[in-house]
Write a structure and sequence with these properties.
The complex is a heterotrimer of chains A (289), B (158) and C (774).
Chain A lengths: L6 H10 L4 E4 L5 H4 L2 H6 L1 E4 L9 E4 L2 E5 L4 H6 L8 H8 L4 H4 L4 H7 L6 H7 L3 E6 L2 E6 H4 E3 L2 E2 L6 E8 L5 E8 L10 E10 L4 E9 L8 E2 L1 H7 L6 H14 L10 H22 L7
Parallel strand pairs in A: 1-2
Antiparallel strand pairs in A: 3-4, 4-9, 5-6, 5-9, 7-8, 10-11, 11-12, 12-13
Chain B lengths: L2 E8 L2 E8 L4 H8 L18 E4 L2 E4 L12 E3 L12 H8 L9 H14 L5 H7 L11 H16 L1
Parallel strand pairs in B: 1-5
Antiparallel strand pairs in B: 1-2, 3-4, 3-5
Helix pairs in contact in B: 2-5
Chain C lengths: L2 E3 L20 H5 L15 E7 L5 E7 L1 H5 L3 E5 L24 E2 L5 E7 L2 H8 L3 E6 L6 H4 L13 E9 L2 H7 L2 E8 L12 E6 L5 E5 L4 H12 L6 E5 L13 H16 L3 E4 L2 H7 L6 E9 L5 E13 L5 H10 L9 E10 L13 H19 L3 H8 L19 H12 L1 H7 L7 E14 L8 E8 L5 E5 L8 H13 L6 E3 L17 H29 L6 E4 L2 E4 L2 E7 H10 L5 E7 L5 E2 L4 E2 L4 E14 L5 E11 L6 H20 L5 E2 L2 E2 L17 E7 L21 H13 L10 H13 L4
Classes of the chains: A alpha+beta (289), B alpha+beta (158), C alpha+beta (774).
C-alpha cells in the first residue's frame, strides 16, 4: 500500500507506477470486491489523507465539490442551502449513517455503476470532472468520464480531484427520486434525477434535464430525447404526458433479480413525474398531474 | 503486501502498531488490540454490526482499511460503561429487553450514544434514522427505540 | 407494554412468574464482552477454509489437492477420504455427507477443507484444488423434480418424504358443497440471517478426546454427529455452546456438525486447535432456510358458509439434502387447513429434492407456508359466496369441542376467539374496513386479518424430554444446568424464573451454567419453542424436588415435620410458629455440615403423541397456541410499493412466564414475518444463489418496521409450567397473510405468491385493470 502525503507525492507515484495500482477513498466498496489475492498483486493507494480535497465551494457562479467530500459533509455544507436539497434527497436514502459518513463524491462517481445515486444528479447538473496528473489537468464532462459499467476515462496516472457544475438560481431546481425494496440500505431498482429551469411568468420550460440510473445500458445516463420533447414548451399536465410517452420509448431497460424490465419501464415515468413535481415545488410552483 | 505504522487513539489510549496493507480497522481492533466487542456480521458493509465511532462519526469498521484510521480517535463499545457502572443506555437496553442475542448491541449502543451526544432529546423518528444502517434480526427494533428514549430522559435528569 | 387478558381467577398467586424480569445474560452483551465463538478462539489456532463445488449436479471424477497441500503455509488439507468414521452430517435422513465424495448436488457443497495458521493463505490455496466434474442434468423446481422423468438427485428418487392426512370423506364433502373454490399459493426461500454467521473451533485433548465449542442450538445433537464422524464414543466428544448470536433454526440442523466435524478431523490430525468460521455468503448458501412451498387448495363450502371439504397438496422444495424437511412438511400438513373445523380433509405433503441449496429448520417450520395459503384461501372463499371474511372465519374457526384436521379435540384451553376480538378492537377494524373502501388517490390504505393455531411440543417430530440439573453451592448459589441453549429468546432465563418461583427464593441466587455435554444431560434440541413449555416443566420438577429437600432439612432444624414447613423469600418456618424460622443460608450451611447432597438431576418427558401415520389422525400435539393478527398497509398504486404501517397481534400463550420476553418474541417474530411478506427472498437461478449477501437480501431495517401492538391472552394449557404455551415461533406466521389480505382490501388484488414485492404488486394491479374481477 502507498500512502501519499500530498497531491504532488501522489501524482509523482502514479506517474511512476502506471499499472497494478488501486486507488482507495474512504469506506470503499472496493474492499467488498477485493479478493485477498488481488491485494497482494495490486498496490492500494490510500487517498483518505488528502483532506484538502474535502471541500464545497462557490466560485464565480459555479459549485466546486472536492472528490473526497463525504456525503455527510456535502449535505451539511453551508454553501449548499435548501436550493440544493437534491443532495439531501440522495442522502436520505443512501445506505445508513455509517455509509453517509464515509462515502465520498469521488468514490461514488468513479465506481461508475447504476448503484451510485449521485451520478444521475450530477449528470442533470451538467457536471464536469477535473482530472489531474503530473502532466497537468483536464476537465471533461461527467458523461465523457463514464465509459461503461465500472469503467471510467480515468488514466492510470490520473486522479479525479473535483466535480464542478453551474450554480442553481431562483429559476432552476433539482430533485431526486429512488425506489428500492425497503426504506434504508437501499440499492435502487431505479432512480431518477430532474433539473428544471422554468420561466415563472410564462411557465415555459427553459431547460429540462433528466437522468436515470439506467436508460439503455447498466449505467446512469440522460434521457435526451425526452428532454428535447419538453424544452421550450409550457409546463402542463399534457406536457408531462408527452414526456412520459417519449421516455417510455427512449428507455431500453433490462430485467435482473431485483426487478423485471416491465416493472422498470412502468416505474420510470412515475419517478420522473415525482421528481418533476418536486422541482416545481422547489420553485414555488404547484404542478397538478 | 506492505507494512505501515499506524498511530491512532482507541478509547482514549494512544497506540502505534505495524499493520499490513490488507488489514481492516475491524481486524486491528479485534485481533491486534484484543477488543472483541466490535463484531463482524457480513464483511461487506451491509449490516452495520461492525460500526465504531471514528472522530465522533459512526463508520463501518469493515470498510476502513486500517491505515485510514491514522491519527484518528476510535471509540468502541469497550469505552462505554463498566460492570460496576453501566451507561444509562446499557441499563435501559437491559430493562427494555432491547438485547436478545446481543450481536448487534455494541453497534446499536454506539450509534445511539452518538445520537444522544448530538441530540439529547431525539424523537422516535430520529432514533430510527440514527440506527437505520444497523440490522437487528431478533428484536424488531421497538425495544431498542424504547430503550434509547428512556435513556435520553435518564440522561437529562443527570 | 403488552396488554394481558383472560387470566383465570383461580390462578395461584405468583411472585415471579408472570412478571417482566430482566434477563440474566444481558449485562455481558451490553458491555460487548468477548463471549461469542470468534471472540474466544484459542491461541495459535489453525483456520479452515472450505473448498466448495462450483457445479450444481455432478459426479466427482477426481479431487486433486496435491498443489494445495504443497502451498507454503498450508498445514493440512482434508477430503472425504480423511473422515475417520462415517462421512455423514445430517439432521434426520442419512442423505448428506460431511464432505462430498462421489457426487455434488448443489453449488456450494463442501468438498474439501484447507488449514493454515494464516486464513489468507488457506483462502488462496482454495484455487489450487483441481476438481474434475462430470455434469448431470439438474432440476430446480420441485414440480419438475417430482415427475418420474426428472434427474434423480438421490438414489431413492426425488421424493424424500410423502405424508398423508385423511379425515372423513372428501368426495362426499365436495358433493355436499354448494361451491368449490380452488387456488394455488407459492412461497419463497426465506433466509434466517442470524447476525452471527456460523463458527466453531475444536481443541484436541491429550487423552484423545476433543472439545468442540461453537455457535449452535443443540449440543447433544452435535455431540452425536461429531462422534460418528470421528468414530469416537460420545463421551470423548465434549461440546460446549458459546454465546450464540441468533439462530432461528439453521444452527440446530447440520451446520454446527459440518463446521465442528471438519475442524475436529483437522484438529485430531494435526494435534492443533482448529477453527472454522463461515463468511456471510457461505452462511447464506450453506445453511438451511425456509422451504418454498407450492400449495394447491380446493375447498368445498355451503351457501351458509360452512366448510364441508378441504383438499390440499403441499409441495416443498427441500433443496439438495432433506435436512428436517420431512418434519417441516409434517407440521405444514397438520396445519394445512388453517385453524378451522372441517369435517372432510384430504391433504398430501411432499418433501422434494432439487438442486437448489438446502431448506430445513427456520422459525415457524411449515406453519408460515400453510397459513399463508389457508388464510389467503378463506378470503377467496368468502368472496365467492359473498360473505364478509371475518364472519366466514367465525363460522368455521376452532372452538372448544371442535375437532382439528387430525381429529384432535380442542379443549377449553382455546383463546382463539378472544385473540380475534382483541385485535379487532385494538385495530379499530370495523371503522377502517369501512373507511378504506372509499379512498381515492395514488396511495391506498388497507387492513387485513389472519388467524392461526400452532401445535406445541415436538409432537410428531421426536421424543420430547428435557434434563435439568440443579445444585446448591456452599455459598448458596444455585447452579442450574441444562443443555437447552440461549441464542436470544431469553427462554433459559425464564427457566430460572420458574425455579425461583417454585423455591420461593430471589432470582439473583440462581446462576445458569453454559450448556456443556460434560456437565448436562441431553435436553433434546432447542427448537420448536420448547424451552419454556417442556424445559419449564423440567425446571418446575427439579426445583420442586430441591425445594423439598431444603424443607426437610429446615424441618429437622426447627424440630417439626416437613409438611408443616412453609417458606417465603428465603425463610423457612413452621406454619403454626412463623416467628421461629431459619434462613436459606442457614439451611445450606447445615446441609453442608451434615454432608447432605443439595443436588437434583431429573428429566421431564412429555407424553408421547400417538396418531395413525397413514391418516395423520390422533393426538398430533399436546396443546395449541392461538393467534390473530391485523395488518394495516399503504399501497402506492403507481410503484407497487407496500408500506406496513401497523400490526396488532394477539396470542393465546397460556401463561406468560416473563411478559417482557414474550413481547420481545412477538415483536421480533412479527418483523421477520413482515420481511417474509414483502421483501425477503433468497433467489436461486439454475441452482446459483444470486443474492447471498445483505445488500441484496433485504432484512427489514428500523425504517421498515410497522407500529406493533402486542396483546397477550391467557387460556392455560396442560403441558407447560403454569399453563404456558409456546410463543417463540407463532409470531412469524401471520404477518404475511394479514398483509396480503390488507393489500386485497386496499386495491382489490389477490397476491397468491409472496413476497409482495413492488414488481408483483404492480403487475397484479395492471392485470386487474386489464381484466377486472367480476
Amino acid at each position: 500500500m502507498y500512502v501519499p502525503e500530498n497531491l504532488d507525492d501522489l501524482l509523482t507515484y502514479l506517474e511512476r507506477h502506471q499499472s497494478g495500482v488501486q486507488l482507495i477513498a474512504n469506506g470503499s466498496d472496493l474492499i467488498n470486491r477485493m479478493q485477498r489475492r488481488q491485494v497482494n498483486a495490486q498496490v492500494l493507494v490510500d487517498l483518505s489523507g488528502l483532506s484538502e480535497f474535502n471541500f464545497v465551494r462557490k466560485d464565480k457562479g459555479k459549485i466546486r465539490i472536492g472528490a473526497l467530500t463525504t456525503i455527510h459533509d456535502l449535505i451539511s455544507s453551508p454553501v449548499l442551502g435548501s436550493r440544493y436539497d437534491v443532495f439531501r434527497d440522495v442522502a436520505a436514502k443512501f445506505g445508513g449513517p455509517s455509509i453517509v459518513n464515509v462515502a465520498t463524491v469521488g468514490g461514488n462517481i468513479c465506481a461508475a455503476s447504476s448503484a451510485e445515486d449521485l451520478i444521475p444528479v450530477l449528470l442533470v447538473l451538467n457536471a464536469k470532472v477535473s482530472l489531474r496528473s503530473k502532466k497537468g489537468e483536464r476537465v471533461i464532462t461527467l458523461k465523457e468520464f463514464l465509459r461503461g459499467k465500472r469503467q471510467t476515462a480515468l488514466l492510470q496516472n490520473e486522479i479525479m480531484v473535483e466535480t464542478v457544475f453551474d450554480e442553481l438560481d431562483e429559476q432552476s431546481s433539482c430533485a431526486f427520486e429512488k425506489i428500492g425494496m425497503r426504506n434504508s440500505l437501499i440499492i435502487a431498482i431505479l432512480n431518477c434525477s430532474v433539473y428544471l429551469k422554468l420561466d415563472k411568468r410564462t411557465k415555459r420550460v427553459d431547460d429540462i434535464r433528466l437522468a436515470l440510473n439506467r436508460v439503455f445500458e447498466k449505467i446512469p445516463a440522460r434521457a435526451k430525447k425526452t428532454e428535447i420533447a419538453m424544452r421550450g414548451k409550457n409546463l402542463s399536465m399534457q406536457l408531462v404526458e408527452t414526456a412520459i410517452t417519449s421516455l417510455k420509448s427512449e428507455l431500453q431497460l433490462s430485467s435482473d433479480f431485483r426487478a423485471s424490465k416491465e416493472y422498470r419501464h412502468d416505474v420510470a415515468p412515475v419517478l420522473f413525474k415525482r421528481a418533476l413535481i418536486k422541482c416545481a415545488e422547489r420553485l414555488g410552483e404547484k404542478l397538478v398531474v | 503486501m506492505s507494512r505501515h505504522l499506524l498511530k491512532f487513539n482507541v478509547n482514549g489510549k494512544d497506540h502505534a502498531l505495524v499493520v499490513e496493507s490488507h488489514e481492516r480497522l475491524l481486524d486491528v481492533l479485534r485481533d491486534r488490540l484484543g477488543l472483541k466487542g466490535t463484531k463482524e456480521g457480513c464483511s461487506t458493509g451491509d449490516c452495520g454490526i461492525c460500526a465504531v465511532l471514528m472522530d465522533g462519526k459512526l463508520v463501518n469498521s469493515c470498510l476502513v482499511i486500517a491505515i485510514q484510521a491514522r491519527n484518528k480517535k476510535i471509540t468502541t463499545i469497550e469505552a462505554i460503561g463498566t460492570s460496576e457502572q453501566l451507561h444509562p443506555l446499557q441499563r435501559e437496553f437491559i430493562k427494555w429487553n432491547a438485547s436478545q442475542c446481543g450481536f448487534c448491541i455494541p453497534a446499536m449502543i454506539l450509534a445511539s450514544k452518538n445520537l444522544l451526544d448530538h441530540k439529547p432529546s431525539p424523537t422516535d423518528e430520529e432514533i430510527k434514522q440514527a440506527t437505520r444502517g444497523i440490522i437487528c434480526r431478533c428484536t424488531g427494533y421497538h425495544s431498542m427505540i424504547n430503550a434509547v428514549r428512556a435513556a435520553a430522559l435518564e440522561m437529562k435528569k443527570q | 407494554m403488552a396488554e394481558k387478558h383472560g387470566t383465570r381467577p383461580d390462578a395461584p398467586q405468583l411472585v415471579l412468574v408472570g412478571k417482566s424480569v430482566e434477563r440474566l445474560d444481558s449485562v455481558d452483551k451490553v458491555l460487548g464482552k468477548p463471549i461469542y465463538t470468534m471472540d474466544i478462539l484459542p491461541e495459535n489456532c489453525l483456520y479452515l477454509k472450505v473448498v466448495r463445488s462450483t457445479h450444481v449436479h455432478s459426479l466427482l471424477k477426481s479431487v486433486d489437492v496435491s498443489k494445495a497441500r504443497n502451498y507454503p503455509g498450508v498445514v493440512q488439507v482434508i477430503t472425504a477420504a480423511d473422515v475417520p468414521g462415517i462421512n455423514e452430517s445430517t439432521a434426520l435422513l442419512p442423505d448428506k455427507p460431511l464432505l462430498a465424495s462421489d457426487k455434488v448436488r448443489f453449488v456450494g457443497e463442501p468438498i474439501a477443507a484447507i488449514a493454515s495458521y494464516d486464513p489468507v493463505i488457506a483462502e488462496e490455496a482454495v484455487d489450487l484444488v483441481k476438481i474434475e466434474y462430470e455434469d448431470l442434468r439438474a432440476v430446480f423446481s420441485p414440480l419438475d423434480a417430482i415427475e418420474s422423468d426428472a434427474p434423480k438427485i438421490h438414489a431413492n428418487g426425488n421424493i424424500a418424504k410423502h405424508l398423508k392426512l385423511r379425515k372423513g370423506n372428501v368426495e362426499e364433502g365436495f358433493k355436499q358443497a354448494d361451491y368449490v373454490v380452488e387456488g394455488t399459493y407459492k412461497t419463497q426461500f426465506q433466509e434466517p440471517v442470524p447476525l452471527e454467521p456460523e463458527a466453531g473451533f475444536v481443541v484436541p485433548e491429550p487423552d484423545g478426546s476433543v472439545t468442540c465449542v461453537g455457535s449452535m442450538q443443540s449440543p447433544f445433537h452435535v455431540q452425536t454427529g461429531i462422534a460418528k464422524i470421528l468414530s469416537l464414543p460420545p463421551q470423548q466428544v465434549r461440546v460446549i455452546q458459546a454465546a450464540t448470536g441468533g439462530a432461528f433454526g439453521p444452527k440446530s440442523d447440520e451446520m454446527p456438525v459440518d463446521i465442528l466435524g471438519m475442524a475436529a478431523i483437522v484438529a485430531l490430525k494435526t494435534g492443533k486447535p482448529t477453527a472454522l468460521a463461515y463468511t456471510r455468503e457461505e452462511s447464506m448458501i450453506g445453511h438451511t432456510k425456509r422451504h418454498p412451498f407450492v400449495i394447491k387448495l380446493k375447498a368445498g363450502v355451503k351457501k351458509n358458509g360452512r366448510l364441508t371439504a378441504w383438499e390440499a397438496r403441499l409441495i416443498a422444495d427441500t433443496g439438495a439434502y432433506a435436512s428436517l424437511g420431512p418434519l417441516v412438511i409434517t407440521r405444514a400438513l397438520f396445519h394445512a387447513t388453517g385453524p378451522y373445523e372441517i369435517p372432510n380433509v384430504k391433504s398430501d405433503s411432499y418433501c422434494v429434492y432439487t438442486n437448489n441449496t438446502m431448506a430445513g429448520s427456520f422459525r415457524g417450520f411449515g406453519g408460515p407456508q400453510s397459513h399463508f395459503a389457508a388464510e389467503s384461501h378463506v378470503e377467496e372463499i368468502a368472496k365467492r359466496i359473498g360473505m364478509d371474511p371475518l364472519k366466514f372465519r367465525r363460522l368455521n374457526m376452532l372452538r372448544p369441542g371442535c375437532l382439528t384436521a387430525t381429529s384432535q379435540l380442542i379443549d377449553e384451553s382455546c383463546g382463539l376467539e378472544e385473540c380475534i376480538e382483541k385485535v379487532l378492537e385494538a385495530s379499530d377494524w370495523h371503522t377502517k374496513r369501512n373507511e378504506y373502501t372509499k379512498q381515492t388517490g395514488t396511495i391506498r390504505k388497507g387492513i387485513g386479518i389472519a388467524i392461526m393455531y400452532h401445535g406445541n411440543s415436538l409432537g410428531p417430530e421426536g421424543n420430547d424430554y428435557v434434563a435439568v440439573h440443579m445444585k446448591i453451592d456452599k455459598d448458596g448459589t444455585i447452579r442450574f444446568r441444562t443443555a437447552l441453549t440461549e441464542y436470544g429468546t431469553g427462554a433459559t432465563s425464564g427457566l430460572l424464573q420458574i425455579a425461583a418461583e417454585v423455591m420461593h427464593l430471589p432470582l439473583r441466587y440462581f446462576k445458569l451454567d453454559p450448556p456443556d455435554t460434560d456437565y448436562c444431560n441431553d435436553a433434546g434440541p432447542t427448537v420448536a419453542s420448547r424451552t419454556i413449555s417442556v424445559g419449564g416443566r423440567a425446571s418446575q420438577m427439579v426445583a420442586g424436588k430441591l425445594h423439598q429437600r431444603l424443607k426437610e432439612i429446615a424441618a429437622r432444624m426447627l424440630g417439626c415435620i416437613v409438611d408443616e414447613i412453609e417458606s417465603t423469600n428465603g425463610s423457612y418456618y413452621a406454619r403454626e410458629r412463623p416467628e421461629h424460622s431459619v434462613s436459606y443460608l442457614d439451611v445450606v450451611k447445615s446441609a453442608y455440615e451434615q454432608g447432605l447432597e443439595l443436588k437434583v438431576d431429573d428429566t421431564f418427558t412429555a407424553p408421547k403423541c400417538e396418531y395413525d401415520p397413514e391418516t395423520s389422525q390422533g393426538t398430533t400435539y399436546l396443546q395449541y397456541t392461538y393467534g390473530a393478527v391485523t395488518a394495516e398497509v399503504e399501497v402506492d398504486t403507481e410503484t407497487g410499493k407496500v408500506q406496513v404501517d401497523k400490526i396488532v397481534a394477539a396470542y393465546d400463550i397460556g401463561k406468560a412466564i416473563n411478559p417482557l420476553s414474550v413481547e420481545g418474541q412477538i415483536e421480533g417474530g412479527t418483523v421477520q414475518g413482515v420481511g417474509y411478506g414483502i421483501m425477503e427472498e433468497l433467489i436461486h437461478k439454475d441452482g446459483v444463489v444470486l443474492n447471498p449477501n445483505l445488500a441484496d437480501y433485504y432484512v427489514p431495517t428500523s425504517m421498515d418496521v410497522p407500529e406493533i401492538k402486542s396483546i397477550l391472552v391467557e387460556y392455560p394449557g396442560h403441558l407447560g409450567p403454569y399453563g404456558a404455551k409456546v410463543i417463540g415461533e407463532p409470531p412469524i406466521v401471520l404477518p404475511a397473510p394479514a398483509i396480503v389480505n390488507a393489500i386485497d382490501h386496499a386495491v382489490g388484488v389477490r397476491l397468491s405468491e409472496i413476497p409482495a414485492t413492488p414488481d408483483r404488486v404492480l403487475l397484479a394491479l395492471k392485470n386487474m385493470i386489464a381484466q377486472p374481477r367480476s
